[in-house]
Structure formats: structure tokens, C-alpha cells
Amino acid sequence: MLNDEDFGAILLTLQLASLVTVILLLLGTPIAWWLAHARSRWKGIIGAVVALPLVLPPAVLGFYLLVLMGPHGAVGQVTKALGLGTLPFTFGGLVVASVIYSLPFVVQPLQNAFEAIGSRPLEVAATLRASPLDTFFSVVVPLARSGFLTAAILGFAHTIGEFGVVLMVGGNIPGKTQVISMQIFNHVETGEYAQAHWLSGGMLVFSFVVLLMLYTLTPNPWRKR
Amino acid sequence: MANIEAQFRLPFPDFTLEVDLQLPAKGVTALFGHSGSGKTTLLRCIAGLECAPQGFLRVNGKLWQDSKQDVFLPTHQRPLGYVFQEASLFPHLNVRKNLEFGRKRVSFLRNPAGLAQAVELLGISHLLERMPDKLSGGERQRVAIARALAVSPQVLLMDEPLAALDLKRKQEILPFLTRLQGELDIPILYVTHSPQEVTQLADHLVVLEAGKVVASGTLEETLTQLDSPLAQGKQAATVLQVTVCGHEPEFHLSQVQFAGGVLSLPYQQAAAVGTALRLRVYARDVSITLQQPEQTSILNVLPATITGMAHDAAGRTMVRLNMGGVPLLSHITRKSASVLGLEKGMQVFAQIKATAIL
């Protein structure tokens, strides 16, 4: 069955995915809002940058992040100057990489939800004395509820499933950066197929349940209502 | 008297909205125009939903926008009520919560009984616990109007509130709008492209064409302005404000009076003597004679003076009449105008068929 290292990897993965999901919702909401409402010519560029992780091989993304956050990279210089050390091969580095990697999975459902709401409810709320921030929480959040749900589920699930970026940025340090997908890889490398089966089977069931939730709880998560 | 002063200049690809208006602080001002005339844009500028780069707006003495001083009050800080063409109720809130949405955000309610009053005025007390998707189109629009009134606005802006409804629903809502006109002491700006709604509801009329104001003034004056788009063709009509002065039940008639004289109408059973009525008189229902006819079946013949004439390309002539200071239109054939030798300043008699509309 599973050993302590396996359980450690599961716990670490859940911690990582939860933290990343919270950060993604906080970060992705304003980005999605801007993409849904801005008329700026930067819109296309920002939209493309956010969507990049969808098509980029994880190894490429991981490589650039490794270089950027490393001791000679721009981000690494800043974190060193702040006395934080460098991010690669730490849990913090994993969080940063995962946020970037999963960003489109959160931004796109939110953007679709915001676009589906349109500007009319915002205008109505303004004529009823609601400030823009008030309108966001009292009108937009309830109306975009299924968008938020979809975004959170996808962001969480996608973070749990990542491998390539973790391999490049996080390494394989038990208790620090060793997540489930790494642990499966380790088991296969050393011929421990039974444990690989347990972890892989668990991931399969988990992923299925997540998608089942997505398709039954939210109406047409991919389409505008 | 406090009022609304509005000046806006807002360029669009196909036209420029350019208006300079003084609107009264009381009654219904209809902003009339065809689609693309800029009437909705003007209303949105007043609400602050659209920001005209050059604009000045003062309502009841308070500055809402002045581009010269860089003043632009955002919509949520303007004490107004707005009714959109589609009811646009919040789908996640029931009727009561929709009504309370704006109300609980107003720190000072000029009229604390406003909500109950609005619910009563629009007849929606039985709908309070329903969700918007369980309402008919007409009910939804009534809730939207009540929601706008519940914030005790200083001015009510309505953007074609009936346009999205079918004829039956329109007729369901019109009586409520007439009640608003009678019972509210705030100005209502009412955007419409329907001449019927104008004659039925408005006290004051602004006619817009391609972003410019082509006529503005009291309803009677503006409706009878010969170059106004409303004074063209078969649908041209004027409004007479009259008072009931007698009944003849045996003939099924009622008498009403106005500055121009006394008219007979089909029996107005519900209107006691002294009641104010609004009459719609279509220009096609007014004919002209030079002498007072002595033996005629037409009951309503009143002396009038010709104050203007306009000929159209279809062989018709629109004649503007004055009866004791009250203007009226008569749509006759150009041949009749020529045979009778009608010209400006002539004393004639108008034969009128009028219908009460309120």
C-alpha cells in the first residue's frame, strides 16, 4: 500500500492546490474582469499571454521560470535582495510556478461568466446607487457563481495534475516539493508498480469526480448562458 | 423654478449629439425621435451612463456634470431613477429584494413611504415574493418602475419602457404610467418613438432628429409646430386640456370646456363636472369652413384663426389654427385650401371630432 512518503506527497499536493486556487481566484478575477470589459488595444496581448500555458510545453514554461527565479534571473535578484533567497526547489517556487501554469484555467471561465453578464446589470445597479465595488459583490458575484465554481474546480484540479513544471522548478524533495505526480514517477522508476497504481488510480477517480461535479453542478460551464 | 439644464456634445461615427435644453421640474417631458436620433443617448448622458466629453448638467440647482470644471458625478451618486427598455430585474433576487436593492443604499430618503407607495401605485403587492422569471413581461416592467421609484429619486428617467412589450402589455402598463404622471411631484423624462405615448403622457415635448433638438416646448405648442416630424401625415394629432362642464345622458354626450370654447364628447360617465380631461384630436378629424354652418350634424364647430400652413408633396395641407390661444392642427386637401382661399390670419370655423384619452 502507500508509504509515508506517498502520504506526504498527497498532503503536500492538497496544500499546494488549495493555496494556488485561492491565489488564482484573487489574481484571476481582476484580470478576467479587465479582459471582459476593457476596450484597450492591450487586451489581445494580455489575453494571449494569460493563455500561453494552455499551449506551451510545461517543460518550456518550467525552464524559463527556473531561469527567471534562479540566482541570476530577474526575479531571483529581487527575491535575494529582499532576503528571501531564491525560489526554485522550494514550496514557494512551486506555488508561483503553479499559479502561472494554471492561470488560464481560472481566467477563462471567469471572463466568459463576466462577458455573459454584460453591462446592463452593472448599469442598473449604478442607477440604484450601488458603487462599482458594491455592484461587484452584490450583483456580479452571485450572477457569475457558476463561473467562479468552474474556475476554482479547474484551477485546483489542474494544479494537482501538473508534472513538467514541477519537475523543472520544484525538483523532487520529499515534504517540500514532492507532489503526487512526482511520486508516481519515482515509483515507476524503481519498479514499484503497485504503489504507482494506487496513486494513479486515486488521481483518476479524483479527476473523474471533479469533472462530474463540474458538469452536473454548473450549467454549460464552457458556454455563455 | 428649479429645473434641468442640459448641454451635451458627444460625437458618434454617424452623427453628433448636440443639445442645449432647459426642461421643466414638473410633469412628463417626452424625448421623441426616430431610432438613431440620439434620444436614448441623451437620457444616458443625463444619467451619467454615458460621459459626453463636453457637457454641462444641472438638476434642481445641483451640478451633476461640467466638463469645464472637470465635474462628473458618477451614476450611483446621482439621485435619479432609471427605467430601461427591458425590465432588467436582477435574476438572482426576488421582487421584494429587487425593490429594496436601491432603497437600502440611499442614506437619506426624501420620501420614506416611497416603497409602499410605489408598490401600491404599480399594483405589484401580490408579486413581492416571486422571482423575476416567474413574471410576465408587463409585470416585470411594473416592478422595474417601482424599483426606480423606491429610491425617492429627484428625477425619473424612462427609456422606452413600453417598446419591448406587445400591444396588450402596453395597454396594461399605460394606465399605471398615467397615474405616475398625475401623482408624482418629480419630473419624468420619457424617451419614446411612439406619437400615441407622447399625446397620452407628455406635458412637455422635445423632438430630436440626428442628434439635434428640432423642437422643444409645451406639448400643445410643439405638436402643432408645422415643421416638427410629429405634425406630418395621417397620425398628426394635438392635445386639448379640457374640463368637464356638463352631461347630457339622454343624448349620451358630455360637454367640456377650454379656452377655445365648449365641445361635446361621447358620454364620460366616470368624469364628474370639474374633472380635467385630456383630449386627443387628430388633424385629419378637423375640417375647416369659412362660415358658421347653420344646419349641420357636426356638433363641434368653433371659431379659429389660421396661424400657419404647410403643403406636402402628396396634395395635402396641414393648417395650424388658434382657438382662444390654444393651437390645433387640421389636415385637409390642398385643393380645399385653394378653393376656400385659406391664408394665414384668416378667421374660419373648425369642425372638430375629439376623443378623450385619459
TrEMBL record, chain A:
Subcellular location: Cell inner membrane; Cell membrane
UniProtKB keywords: Cell inner membrane, Cell membrane, Membrane, Molybdenum, Transmembrane, Transmembrane helix, Transport
Keyword Hydrolase belongs to the record: no
Domain ABC transmembrane type-1 residues, every copy: 10-216
InterPro entries found in the cross-reference section: MetI-like, MetI-like_sf, ModB_ABC
CDD domains: TM_PBP2 (cd06261)
One CC-aspect GO term: plasma membrane
Protein's job: Part of the binding-protein-dependent transport system for molybdenum; probably responsible for the translocation of the substrate across the membrane.
Similarity comment: Belongs to the binding-protein-dependent transport system permease family. CysTW subfamily.
Name of the protein in question: Molybdenum transport system permease
Organism expressing this protein natively: Thiothrix fructosivorans
Lineage: Bacteria, Pseudomonadati, Pseudomonadota, Gammaproteobacteria, Thiotrichales
